[in-house]
Amino acid sequence: MSESTSEDRSLETNEPALPVLPDNLDDLLAMGQQYLDQQGFIEAQQVFEKALTLEPANVVARHNLGYAQESQGLHEAAIADYEAALQSPTPLAQSAFNLGVLLTRANRVDEARRAFEQVLTLEPTFANAWVNLGVLHARAGELTAARRCYEKALEMDPSCHSARLKRANVKARERRWEEALADYAGLLEEGWNPAEVHYRRGLVLGAKGDEEDALRAYKQAIAAASDHIAAHIQLALLYAQQEHYDQATETLQQAASLAPDDARVQYNLGNMHARQAVEGGEILNYGYGDAAMRAYRRAIELDPRFLKARYNLACVAEKMSVQEGITSWEQYLEAARDVPAEQEWLVKARRYLRTLKDAEAVS
């Protein structure tokens, strides 16, 4: 059997054409597993589909068919197969786990939680299921429940580093700074995922107000993994907090070269340019203003629902040109009008738009 991971799997295969399939179930199961081991997912799918024509209730064939389809990106089909496998009188905990992973990716949170709970009913010692259930609790703000899940994972598997990291993250959210930092230090001593651990240390140190130590932590995260985009963003924000805008911009430009399609990077790059373009409500540098607008527009192109980018674009655009401002505020209002969290900002946007239209009428 095979388990889900967060890694993308290739749709390509170099396997030879599928030979004539045997008519014996055991032979089919062995052949299908061999194809899975060789990442021949299309061939494996065909083999397990034939196995199920011989024995429709075979739980191993149904599970592995789901895995073969998941590995090709056929997630809805995989979900259906895992759910079917779980109807067996002898369901597999791994089917429920893989199902939970896919449901989490699809943001079907309640169903994902039930899937991980089913894993633990079938196999209470399944440490990664405890971790993933903890993640769902943490996302919901249920920090005590999340921490208990991570502790349960560690009870099942004391070497489960991801549970230790996530438990430390919960402590950080609870403002138990020193405990979290001690946990991060322990993970670093063991050399486990230093980029992510340094990044998390940086978040805690920044929240404590230890800016220089936070800067060092973010730099260590980037040194460990140059493509850690979140570390680049947080380093840039800390530079900006210290009014080192050139360093902040340079850091974000490096991130943009690594992740040109990351809307968060473009949004923050726009913010850095905007801070250098506008002061006291007045445009001081049109070059930075143009750069800010380009970055915000790129962020919106990448994520049309990025309402902060639309709002900030309009803030800069109205300083550059009345007509640009009118257009940008109208676009923001159209995109945000039905979003409850934007209601306060919508009131301001309507006021700014009225002011611009009045100015346009006078001119």
Mind sketching the topology for me?
Blueprint lengths: L24 H13 L3 H14 L4 H13 L3 H11 L7 H13 L3 H14 L4 H13 L3 H14 L4 H13 L3 H13 L4 H15 L2 H14 L4 H13 L3 H14 L4 H15 E2 L2 E2 L2 H17 L4 H14 L1 H15 L6 H20 L1
Antiparallel strand pairs: 1-2
TL;DR?
This protein is mainly alpha-helical.
Identify the notable features of this structure and list them briefly.
1% strand; globular; 363 residues; two-stranded antiparallel sheet
Task: Outline the structure in words.
Residues 5-13 have low confidence and may be disordered. A hairpin with a 2-residue loop joins strand 1 (278-279) and strand 2 (282-283). Helix content is 74%, strand content 1%. The chain is mainly alpha-helical. It has a two-stranded antiparallel ribbon with strand order 1-2.
